[in-house]
Structures are given as C-alpha cells and as structure tokens.
Design goal:
This protein is an alpha/beta fold. The strands form six sheets. It has a six-stranded mixed beta sheet with strand order 5-8-9-3-10-11, with helices on both faces. Helix 12 packs across helix 40, helix 15 packs antiparallel against helix 19 and helix 39 packs antiparallel against helix 40.
C-alpha cells in the first residue's frame, strides 16, 4: 500500500475549490508548520549549548533560578503532552478504520508531541543558564501553534462537528493550552523585561544556591526533577564509589533550617496567645499554631494524596474495560467490521475508550500519575489526614463494587468492616506487650551491667553461673512477653492477609447464588482489584488510631510545658537585657509592694547601720557587689526554703558561706542567681563604679555574668580544654595558670590525648574529684567579676584542697580583684575570708568578719573551734590516704587496657585482614554492595532447621494457594461464559456448585495457611533471638578476663541492648515482609508469564533496570541510615546535658550559645533524615514507574497474545499488585541488611575463645576440705596475659608454709597483681607451676580451684540484692555464720540497725554504703568462705585509716591460722609479715623477713621503705 499524507482512497482529498482552509487535509498540514519551525530553531541552539556544556564539567547549580510562572508552565506542558498522546491515539484508531493510511490524522500530533518535549528541554536549559532572551523562539512558537489550532477549531465549528466527537474536544482543549502558554510567556517578558524594554531586570539565584554547601536541591529544581528526584542521582551513584558522609549531604536550605521554623512556629503561637488573652479559661491551641505556620504544605500534601487515591480507582476500571473489550473482540471476530467513510472519520469518546490498547495506555499514564502524586504527598508530609482519606476510599470503593456486582458486593464490604475492630484490638494489645517487654529488658540490662562491672570478682569467686542464671530468668520473662508480642504481630499479619480472601469469598459465593447471570471475568477481576484497594486503609486504621492518640497526648504535654512559668530574664542582674518575659513583669510588681508593706524603718536602719559599726575594714555601700534585702525564696512549692535573708557580698573580696549540711547554703547561691522563685524581697546587683582605677582592668569583663561551679560537677561532652575555656577565647598563659592552680596537669598527662581527650557522657569517665577540679578550673578561667564556688573541696583530698586554696583562690582570684563567694565545710579556711555568712535552717545566723563573730557570738566561735580541731585530727589521718594518687591510679588503670589494646591491634591487624574482610569498612565496591547472605544464613539456622523448613514450606504453599484461588476464578468465569449457551439449567447448577465448592475450599486453605505462615515466621524469629542471646551470655561470662580489660564495657552492653533488641523485635517483621513481597512479585511474574509467555521478553530489560536500582539504592540507604542514627545521638546527648547543666549555663549567661548549638545539631540530624526520606522517594518513584511499565507490557502482551479473557484479567490484576510490592522488596532488603549488622556483631563475640574450665582431675578426686593446710609452693613460675604477649612474671620460685603471713611488694608494673591472679589461673601459666597442699593447680577444674580460695580486691564490689546474697550468693551458710562474719568485720551493729537485718537491700554497686563499709563487707565475704588461703590485692588502697586498722586487726586475729598473702600498695602495711617477696620487672629479687631485708642498705625493699614512709 502506497503511503499518502491524505490517503489514496479519497479523490476529493486534494480538492481546494471550496477554499484552501475548507480542506481538512490542508488544515492538518498547516498544523505541522509551527512544530517544524520550533525544531529548526531550537536544535542548533541546544546543540551548541550542550556542546559547550560538555566541555565544562557540569554547570553548577548556583546559576539556577526559576522564571516567573515556572511551575504553571511545566504543568501546562505536561497537560499538552497528554493531549498530544490522546490526539495521536485518536488519529491511529481512526486510521485503522480506513481503507488506506491517512497520515494527516496522526503525523501532526506526533510532531506536536516532539515539539512540546523539545520546548520544555529548551526552556529548562535557558532557565538554568539564566539567558531569557532566547525565550523569544518559544514565544513565537506558542503564537503560531495557537493560530493554527484556532483555524482548525473554527473549521470544525463551520462544518458542524458535534461536541461529542473526540477530535473536537481535543482541539478545543489544545487551543486553551496554547493560549495559556502564550500568556505565561508574556508574563515572563512583563516581569523580566528582557525584550521591548530599555532596562532588563537583573535577577540573582536564591541565596541557598549561591552557597555551595547546600546540596539538598529539592526546593530549587524543576517540576520533573522534583517529581522523579532526578537531582538525587548524583548522590546515589557517588555513594557507590565512596561512603556518604556529612560533607556529601551538605547544609540545609535556609527555609528548612530549625531556626526559620522555630521563629515561624513561635510567631504563630504568640498569635494564638494574643487571641485567648481575653478568655482566661481558654488556653492557646498548638494545633492551630502548627496549622497557621505549616498549613500550606499539609494542605498541598493532602490534595496530592486525594488525587492519588482517586487515580488508584483507574486500575480496576481499566481492567474491567480491557477484559470486557477483549471478550467482545474475541466474540465479534466472525462479524465483519464496517469501514468508515474517509470524509467522516470522526470518533466519539465512547468508541475511543472501548479500544483495549487505548485503555492499556491510559492505565499506564494513570499509574504513573498516581504514583507521582503519592510520592509528592509523602515528601511534603508523612501521613496526614489519613482518617478522612480512609473514609473517602471506602465509600468510593463500595460504590464502584456495588455498580459491578450489586448487593453481593455489600456482603464483602461488610466482612471487611466487621473485621476492622479486631484489627484495632490487636493493635492495642501489641502496644501493651511492647511496654512490658521494655520493662523486662531494662531489668535484664541492669543485671547484665552488674555482671560485667563485677566480672573479675565473679570469676575469682566462681560465681558466674549464679548470676548468669539470674539474667536467664529475667530473659525468660522477657521472652514470654515477646511471645505475646509475636502472637499479636502474627495475628495482625494474618488478618491483613486473610480479610481480603474472606471478603472475596463471601462476595463471589453470594453473587453466584443470588444472580442468574454467570460472573463475568471483567466483573470478577475489577472487583478483586477494588477489594485490594479497600483493605489498605483498614490495615492502616489500627496504626493510625495508635499514632493519633500518641500525637494528641504529646501535644497536650507540649501545651502544658509551653504554658508553665518561666524564670525571669537576666534583667535583675542590672544588665541591659533584651526582652523582659511576662513572668518577670509579674514578679517585679510584687516586689515593690512587698518591700513597702513589710519594711518598717526600724529594719532599714538596722540593715544600714551594720557596716558603720564595723571599722576594721571600711566598706561603703558602693563596695557591695550583691545585696539581698528581706528575701524569701522557694523551690516552686510556695513554702519558703530561705526566709528573711538580708545579706551583702562585698566587691573584690572573698565571702565564705558556712553552715551544716542542708541549711540552705547552695540554695542561697541559686537564689542570688535567680534560679529560685522569689516570694518577697529583692536581689540587687550593684553597678560597678567605673571611675575607680582598680576597675580599669575589669572593663573588658562581662560586668554581670557570674562564673559558677556547682556542687555536683557538670561536664560537657567535649575535650578537657573545651570544658575549661567554655566558649571564652583561649589564652595560653591564663589556661596554664588555671590548670596548675587546680593541679590538673598530672591528670591531663595520663589521658590518651592530653587535654584534647573527650570527657563527659560518651568520653572517658573521670572520678568525682577530677570532674570537680575541671569545673572549678572553668569558673576560674572565665573573665567575670564575680565567681561563685559551691563547695569545691567536697570531693578533693587535703593536698589538693590546700593547693587550690593557695594557688587558685588566694593568689589567682585575689590578684584579679574578683568578687568570690565560696560555700564550704572546711572551716580551717575561715581565717582567709574577708566576710563570713553563717547559715542555719534556711536563715542567716550571722554575718560579718571573723573578728566580728569572735566578739559578738562567742558560742558560735567556740563551736567552730571544736569542729576545726576535729577536722585537724582527720587531716592527719588523711595525709597518708592520698586520694588523688588513687584517682590517678584508677585513671591509669582505665587507660592501660586501651594502650595494650592498641599495641595488640598492630600485631593482630595482618591476621584479621585475611580472616574477615566484611568488617573492614573498605570502599571496595564488592563489599559495599554485597548483601550479607552468610550472616542471614547464620540467623536463619540459629532458629533451628525444622522451623526454617516449616517457614519456607508454608510460605511457598500459601502463595501457591493464593495463586490457585485467582487461577480458579479465572477458569470459572471464562468457563461460565463459554458454556452459558450450551448447557441446561441442571448442568449449570451442578457446575456452579462444583466451582463454588472448589473456590471455598481453596479460600479456606489460604486463610489457614496465612495464619500458619505468620506464626512460623514469628516463632522462628523468637527461637533465633532466644538462642543467640543465650549463646552470647554464656560466651561472654566464660570469656577470659583479658577480653574484659580490652573491650570497653559499653561495647559489650551494646550487644545486649541495641543489638538484642533488633534481633528480638525488628528482624522477624522485616523478614516476614520481605519474603511476602518477594513471593508476591515472583508469583505475579510467573502468572503473567504463564498467561502470555511473550511477557518474559519484555521482562529482561525491566529486570536489569530493577537490579541496578536496588543495588545503588541499598548502598546509599545504608549510609544515610547510619548518618541519621549517628547524628541523632549528639542531639539527644546535647539536649540531656543542657537540661542537666541549666543552672551553670544560665549563671554564665551562655543560653544563646547552647540554643544555637541545639539548632545546629537539629539541622544536621534533619538534613540526614531529609536525604534518607528523599532516597526512599527516589527508589519508590523508580520502582513505581517500573511497575507501571510492567502493567503496560502485561496489558499489551495479554491483549495481543492472550488465550481468553479470564487470563487477561488475571495478568493485569497481578501486574497491578507488583507495582505495590516492588519497592517493599527493595526497602525490606535494605532494612534487613542494616539489621543483619546486629547479628554479625553478636556473632563476632560468639567466635571468641572461652577460658578452659575443664581440668585433668575430676572434681570428685579433689578432697572435700582441700586446701586444708594452706601450704604454697611456687616453682619456676612464668606468666603472661596472652600467648602473643610478653611474660609478666619470669621464673619466680618461693615457698610459703601453712599459716604464714606473706607480704608482696614492688614498684608499679612489677607483676604483684599478676602473681595474685596466677593463683586463680586468671592468666596464662605457660611454664612452671603452683602447688597448693600437694595438688598442682593447673590440673584442677577452674570452678573447683576458684571456689576453694578467697580474695579481697582493691575495689570493693557489692551487687544489688540483700546483704545475705552479697555475703553468700550460693546460700550455703547459716545465719549464725553470717552474723559471725559481720561481727568480725565490725559491721554487726550497723547491719542490725538496718530494716530487715541480713535481708536489708543493697543498691546497685553498694551505693548506700561508704567505701570503707563496702570493703569491710568484702572482708566478711572472704571470711564466710572458710578457705585456708586468703589473698589481699591492695585491699586497703581505697579506704580510710580507721577501716584499714580494723582490717589489719582482723587479719591478725580471725585469720590467724590461715595463710594470708597481702599485696601492698604501701610498704608500711607489710612490715609485720613473716616473709616478704619483693618483685621487680617480673623477677623475684628479694625474699626474706622484713628485719633481714632492711639490713641490706642498697636493697630494693630498703629503698621502697625509705621513699614510701
């Protein structure tokens, strides 16, 4: 057939006798002109532009901007493209009904489509390079297109073409679109004045884009890129090459920053406040404030959401149309079609929509649009107005179902609606189960934490199993509540899967028996698809109700918080503060009244006469820095904590506040700082008289800020240096002076990175004294006039206190002429004070100089003197027990494992690389894209092979049954129609019964299998969690002590907390969801391929695309997920530490700095979260579009190749489900990959070597009372910590007779403690042996050996539980024995006085007893175990002299007949020992009695005694 533009079956096609414009063909040809014109003009420009662009790497986005009417232009162009598609389709469909090809029907439309596409590409390039003059070409194109289309429309009107004809409608709409585009173009000229005007407007791109740090481009890109997240491509592809870090995701755009939104919401809330000011009983609404601040995006999102939901119904309607059309074509193949007259080639809309191919394309476009809207709505806001949506969806769905199936549809809908409350009930039960699980897991963690902290003691006493059992018990409770959780989860999953099956069953069975007409495939599959849509809002309903309740509660709490009183602003400090808060205004009014009312002249006179009486040191009123008159202060309860306070604090001098514990000293400081509620009275901060020369220096200081060190030290999560300078400029000289005054230098030297070491919550733990000294250093370093120190000496020993007083306070502060207020219990410093305030019971007892008080209040002065004498006696004791060296020792010990660890790591590195590549965060592509299948397999098998098999089998069976149900429906509906004419009524009813029976059986089986599968997955997850935790706990408890020295406690705890939680609660649902969506997609693809094998060919490119999308997404998603998690932690930490240190922050006046930091951290977390959600959208848009392509190919292949209409419907139904499940497959894969990290971490601990608990001897072969005598032979002993480390003891030989008292001494690191550990085989004895009472200890089972010896460690460890449990966890001893032990340890009276006696509770770590008492409990514990050998490892290092004396006495009396080995940290302790071993560098250098050893002048022991005395 020859091709001709106007067709060759119509002679009049080229006839122009009636005028050129009356010829249809000519008008169509005319329509080609504008399109060809545009292509000719724009191609060279684009070509040149692109050519020059490719030479640059990439135009940076700082030239991007949007011309006026940007979004409108994109929307109009897309609509135009859609109209062109309709025009092409209409042309082709009309053409198929002609005898010969009529190109003029569709060729202009095709050219128009190309031209519209080019126009938008052209516009985008002009816009991004900001060159508006080139828009003229587009302007001309719109005018020409508008004119030619109008001519066509006029021609149709003249010919009297009716409005119902599709071509007329299309032409009319296109005229409007071209007109609007023309208007948009004119508007650009009007605003930008780039042509026809003298001075064109210069426009700069948005501020964000000029800042190269902003990488989140969603607000700035064009509409297409916004909808498809095209701009994310660069990030997602680069993630493949190197991990995404904070630098890669840049900064937040200004409009999205926390500050912008904070201001926005604050203004809206203030508006609400103003509105309700007149109504005292109404409170401002946060909901309205949020709506007015962020209402627009929420509205926009819901609009998108509704549009998406309405478009969702296009699926079922198109399926119905396609199946119906397919059925008609197959039925009508024998009837000949009439050929249309070429002169009247118009199609009506109905005829057009009956074409199956048109429907397939429409379905494709509807899906693309629906998914785009859906993702847009997700991006703008996640889930809003969902309840309304749900209702709307259900109503629409039911109406459509009713149209399709009549009354029987209502039965199905009723099933769904009736089962919905059960869903809600299950959801509430789930929340309860989760809460109880949380309680148990907290308890379990507490116990695990105790075990890990006291692991050394547990191992030495062979008690690890007792404690392990206790954790296992709690774990069993936790698992029981996890079982309930799992049961409800699986029920919820089951309901989600079973409801649609039940509804469909009810509907179709009812239909079969109530209708005479057989069920049509079109009806069946459209209604199936509708049921799928209907069930979705009901699944979500339960979750939504839960979230809604949570949201309402949260907002209520927020409202209460925002309405609570605020502390006044700093205006009371006399500074020029900015905004006085309302609360402040209220109080000031109250003060003035109070003063006038309550103060007769008498009081004023007295208070003003005081300074005049005192002539020792002349003090003018101007010399008062702070004055409190008639102050009554409370902690918010309304009861005055401090009453009748009248004090003055002299400028530039030291004021001391003294008094008993709890008399209100700290409260007084806080009241002055404005932290307490002022009931009456006034705090007056004087202005500095700046004429005085002494204050010239202080002008640079902030006059009103106060440096404050609280009683409880508060540290930031930052380096030591940052904690001390606290936001002030760094001055090296001053910094050095301050650290020396607080004697911090030795401590800093011990830290791994000096003063750049992180301390605080997440950093290295310092002792109380070290923390306190850092806080004091911070207060001294600040350049402020006034310094408040609240009991800075409480945690310091005497040397440090004296040093701080001399260097820090008397020298550093007094030289600076700073005003100092010092709260203290150390009365020996009173003589240094310039002014003293003595307090009692919340009142001021006395005020004045020491001399004043001595003269006025002799009684008080005498009381102080007796107290000072007592303190002096304590001092002498204290001089020996040097607390600081102990603290430093602890710190050094904490640092030691870290150092040895780093030394170890260097040796291990080579081996590790070969062993486990996975742990290496290398940027090798293979590792970053590899799914951790090995770990998955380990996880699955830890649930047991039987359950694994059951799960796989039941899953496969369930999906086969579900496919069978749909397959049966397809055969049933197709058969019914084929047999309708042939069969008698009787045949029909038997056939119907047969079909319904099989359908019911299959549906029933499907429902039961749904339950079984959901249960097996959860059950398997539970078993796996149970086994993994059990193995982990046992492995850790039996691990060698070296492992605990080297592995930070937090790391081990993490395995038991975060990782166990993931394994318990997160992996099973992810696994379930992943297997379900994968199997659904696979069964769908299988079904479509079965119906139309050609589909497989089209599937290959789609499959490849899908593979790459998921591969790239998983890598980026993992990185972004980690970034989101890691940026959340600093935010939460900063928040908690700010809340904790509020008083300090407010005293320093640093609120703004902390607020700023808070906003910065919020922004950092938000940008990570935004990118994560954008990456999810990126994936979903792509998988959704892929799904739409699958639907299109499935529709086209089944229409051309399909066997019968039932299968066409089936194929399309399945293709539609694929679109819903494809992105779930990828997202679950990505989630699972992250979650498997937890399993991997747990496994890395499971591969650790345990201690060897077995011995060569059977426990029964060891005598019951061994060791009876306590004779110890050490023969050529060599010891090391691990077989790859150097020996710590070399060839030690010694003999200890039964009952001897032995002392072991030596310098730090000489191997003293290693020797004590060798007795318990806690270290590796690789040569030589220790023989106790004739048995070589290396042959004994570990448990036996350790349970027969006793040890008292340096750090006293107590566990939470009763006193009885702490002395005897094995419950072997009688009460008398326990009381005897307590009496020996001199604790009997104290324990008797406690409620419950032996059953009195010990808090965690024994915090409710002093250190000395704890050490005595440990002594009692050692006595309870009647062992003939006792080892004391520096047991007296951390206790005071009194307790130490008790210990020494007990050892001499109660342990007189036992062998006692004492490792001494002070040589003076072991001078009375029978024999002394002196170690140096791992060798035994001296061994004799003390008197003999002291005779050697140059002996090591003699030097030790001389230096230590």
């Amino acid at each position: 057939m020859r091709l001709a533009f106007c067709g060759n079956d119509n002679a009049s096609a080229y006839n122009i006798s009636a005028g050129v414009l009356r010829n249809v063909c000519f008008v169509d040809a005319l329509n080609l002109v504008p399109h060809v014109f545009l292509l000719f003009i724009t191609f060279p420009i684009l070509f040149i532009g692109w050519g020059s662009q490719s030479s640059k790497v990439q135009i940076h986005h700082n030239t991007w901007l949007h011309f006026p009417g940007h979004n409108l232009r994109w929307i109009l162009t897309f609509t135009l493209l859609f109209m062109h598609v309709c025009e092409i389709a209409e042309g082709i469909v009309s053409d198929t009904q002609m005898k010969s090809r009529h190109l003029h029907l569709f060729l202009p439309a095709i050219m128009g489509f190309v031209a519209a596409t080019v126009s938008i590409v052209y516009y985008h390039n002009i816009e991004t390079s900001n060159f508006p003059k080139l828009l003229l070409a587009l302007f001309l194109y719109w005018i020409m297109a508008f004119v030619t289309k109008t001519i066509k429309l006029v021609r149709y009107c003249q010919d009297g073409v009716p409005f119902s004809q599709l071509r007329f409608c299309i032409t009319g709409i296109m005229v409007i679109l071209y007109g609007l585009l023309m208007a948009v173009e004119i508007n650009v000229i009007r605003v930008r004045k780039y042509v026809f005007f003298m001075n064109p407007q210069k426009v700069k791109p948005p501020e964000d884009l000029q800042d190269l740090g902003v990488r989140f481009l969603q607000p700035f890109v064009n509409l297409l890129s916004k909808a498809t997240y095209w701009w994310m491509n660069t990030l997602i592809i680069s993630a493949h090459k190197k991990p995404v870090d904070l630098k890669a995701i840049g900064k937040l755009p200004i409009a999205m920053r926390a500050l912008t939104n904070y201001v926005c919401l604050k203004e809206a809330y203030e508006e609400q406040k103003k509105k309700v000011e007149d109504h005292p009983n109404r409170s401002p609404s946060i909901w309205l404030a949020m709506y007015s601040a962020f209402g627009r995006p929420i509205l926009l999102s819901s609009t998108f959401r509704y549009l998406a939901d309405l478009l969702g119904f296009a699926g079922p309607l198109c399926i119905s149309g396609i199946v119906q059309g397919f059925q008609n074509t197959t039925n009508n193949t024998n009837t000949t079609e009439k050929v249309k007259d070429p002169s009247n080639s118009y199609l009506s809309s109905e005829e057009f929509l009956r074409n199956v191919y048109v429907l397939a394309v429409l379905l494709f476009l509807a899906l693309i649009l629906q998914r785009t809207f859906l993702q847009a709505s997700y991006y703008v806001t996640t889930e809003t107005g969902i309840n309304l949506r749900g209702a709307l969806l259900i109503i629409m769905g039911v109406i459509l179902l009713y149209n399709l199936l009549g009354v029987s549809a209502l039965v199905g809908a009723a099933v769904i609606v009736l089962l919905a409350p059960i869903q809600y009930f299950i959801a509430t039960k789930l929340a309860e189960a989760q809460k109880s699980t949380l309680d148990y897991s907290t308890e379990r963690l507490k116990k695990t934490n105790e075990i890990l902290k006291g692991i050394k003691l547990l191992k030495l006493y062979a008690w690890e199993h007792i404690f392990c059992t206790s954790v296992e018990e709690t774990r069993m409770k936790e698992l029981t509540s996890l079982k309930t959780f799992a049961l409800h989860t699986s029920l919820s999953i089951f309901m989600n899967a079973a409801i649609p099956i039940a509804a469909v069953l009810a509907t179709f069975v009812t239909y079969a028996y109530t209708n005479d007409k057989p069920l049509q495939p079109a009806q069946a599959f459209a209604s199936l698809s509708l049921f799928h849509i209907l069930v979705t809002p009901l699944f979500l309903l339960s979750t939504v109700v839960r979230f809604a309740v949570k949201a309402i509660v949260s907002v209520q709490k927020l409202n209460e918080f925002l309405l609570s009183d605020e502390i006044g602003d700093d205006s009371w400090r006399g500074g020029d503060s900015s905004v006085p808060y309302e609360s402040c205004k209220k109080h000031t009014g109250l003060h003035t009244k109070a003063i006038n009312r309550r103060q007769p002249l008498r009081y004023q006179l007295e208070s003003y006469e005081q300074p005049k009486r005192k002539h020792t040191r002349p003090l003018e009123i101007d010399d008062v820095a702070i004055k409190v008159t008639n102050g009554y202060f409370s902690w918010g309860s309304g009861l005055a904590t401090l009453s009748n306070i009248n004090i003055r604090i002299p400028t530039g001098q030291m004021t001391m506040i003294v008094g008993q514990v709890g008399c209100g000293k700290s409260s007084l400081l806080l009241a002055i700082l404005g932290e307490m509620q002022t009931l009456e009275g006034k705090v007056h901060w004087s202005n500095v008289n700046e004429m005085e020369p002494s204050f010239e220096a202080s002008k640079s200081r902030n006059r009103y800020s106060v440096a404050y060190a609280a009683q409880k030290p508060w540290l930031l999560n930052a380096t030591v240096e940052e904690n001390i300078i606290f936001g002030s400029p760094f001055n090296k000289q001053r910094y050095k002076a301050v650290t020396d005054a607080c004697s911090l230098q030795p401590d800093i030297d011990l830290l791994p990175f000096g003063d750049q070491t992180e301390i605080g919550e997440r950093g290295i733990n310092l002792s109380g004294g070290q923390r306190q000294r850092i806080c004091v250093a911070r207060a001294l370093y600040q350049n402020t006039n006034i310094v408040f120190l609240d009991d800075p000496f409480s945690a310091l020993d005497i040397h440090l206190s004296d040093h701080l007083m001399q260097e820090g306070i008397l020298k550093f502060l007094q030289e600076d002429k700073r005003t100092l207020v010092l709260v203290t219990h150390k009365l020996q410093y009173l003589p240094h004070a310039d002014w003293i305030i003595a307090m009692k019971d919340g009142m001021v007892l006395r005020e004045g100089t020491l001399k004043d008080i001595q003269n006025k209040d002799v009684e008080l002065y005498e009381h102080w003197k007796t107290l000072m004498n007592r303190q002096d006696q304590e001092l002498e004791k204290d001089m020996e027990a040097d607390q600081t060296t102990l603290e430093r020792k602890t710190l050094r010990r904490a640092m030691y494992p870290r150092e040895s660890k780093s030394q170890l790591e260097d040796e291990d590195e080579e081996e590790e690389e070969e062993e486990d590549e996975d742990d290496n965060m290398s940027t090798v592509l293979r590792l970053r894209t590899k799914m951790p299948w090995k770990t998955c397999w380990r996880y699955l098998t830890s649930g047991g092979f039987f359950l694994l098999f059951l799960m796989i089998f039941s899953k496969l069976l369930k999906h086969s049954v579900i496919v069978a149900i749909d397959y049966w429906l397809a055969t049933w509906t197709s058969m019914d129609n084929a047999n309708e004419a042939r069969n008698t009524d009787e045949d029909k009813s038997t056939e119907k019964a047969y079909h319904v029976a099989v359908f019911s059986i299959l549906s029933g089986a499907g429902i039961i299998l749904c339950l079984i599968t959901s249960l097996t997955v959860e059950w398997m997850g539970l078993t796996a969690a149970k086994n993994l935790h059990h193995n982990l706990l046992n492995k850790i408890i039996l691990g060698p002590i070296r492992f605990f020295d080297m592995t930070p406690l937090g790391l081990i705890l993490n395995r038991f907390s975060a990782d166990t939680n993931i394994i318990d609660q997160h992996i099973p649902p992810t696994l379930e969801s992943l297997t379900r969506s994968t199997l659904l997609c696979l069964s769908a693809i299988g079904m479509i391929s079965y119906a139309t094998p050609w589909f497989l060919v089209a599937l290959v490119p789609l499959g490849i695309a899908f593979y790459f999308i998921q591969k790239y997404f998983r890598v980026a998603s993992k990185d972004l997920q980690e970034l989101d998690d890691s940026t959340q932690l600093p935010l939460l930490c900063h928040f908690s530490e700010t809340a904790e240190g509020l008083t300090t922050i407010r005293a320093f006046g640093h609120e703004a700095r902390f607020k700023q930091r808070m906003l910065e951290l919020t922004d950092t977390n938000n940008i990570a979260y935004l990118f994560l959600s954008a990456a999810n959208r990126w994936l979903e848009v792509r998988t959704d579009y892929l799904g739409a392509c699958i639907v299109l190919t499935a529709a086209v292949t089944s229409i051309t190749e399909g066997p019968h209409s039932g299968f066409v419907g089936l194929g399309l139904l399945y293709a539609l489900t694929i679109t819903n499940y494809l992105n779930w497959v990828v997202r679950n894969l990505a989630d699972l990959e992250v979650q498997m990290g937890a399993v991997k971490k747990v496994h890395s601990f499971l591969n650790m070597e345990s201690e060897n608990y077995e011995g060569y001897l059977d426990p029964s072969q060891v005598p019951k009372d061994w060791p009876q005598e306590g004779e110890i032979k050490i023969e050529n002993l060599c010891v090391r910590y691990e077989n790859n480390l150097k020996p710590v003891l070399k060839h030690v030989k010694a003999y200890i007779k039964p009952g001897q008292k032995v002392g072991i001494c030596g310098r730090t690191g000489s191997g003293k403690s290693s020797l004590s550990l060798a007795f318990f085989r806690m270290v590796d004895i690789f040569d030589g042996r220790i023989v106790i009472d004739g048995i070589d200890i290396s042959k004994l089972p570990l448990h036996t050996l350790r349970s027969r010896l006793s040890i008292i460690l340096q750090d006293p460890i107590l566990f939470s539980g009763s006193i009885r449990f702490n002395l005897d966890p094995e419950c072997k001893c009688t009460d008398d024995r326990l009381w005897e032990a307590l009496e020996i340890a001199q604790l009997k009276n104290m324990v008797k006085s406690l409620p419950g006696g032996l059953d009195a509770m010990v808090t965690e770590g024994g915090e409710n007893f002093s250190v000395g008492q704890r050490q005595l409990f440990c002594l009692a514990r050692a006595f309870v175990r009647k062992s003939s050998i006792l080892i004391m490892d520096e047991a007296t290092a951390s206790i005071d002299m009194a307790t130490e004396n008790i210990l020494q006495k007990v050892v001499m009396t109660a342990f007189a007949d036992r062998t006692v080995v004492t490792i001494a940290h002070r040589v003076s302790h072991i001078l009375d020992a029978n024999i002394i071993l002196v170690l140096s560098g791992g060798f035994l250098v001296e061994c004799d009695t003390a008197s003999n050893l002291l005779l050697k002048e140059d002996g090591l022991f003699t030097t030790l005694v001389k230096t230590h005395k």
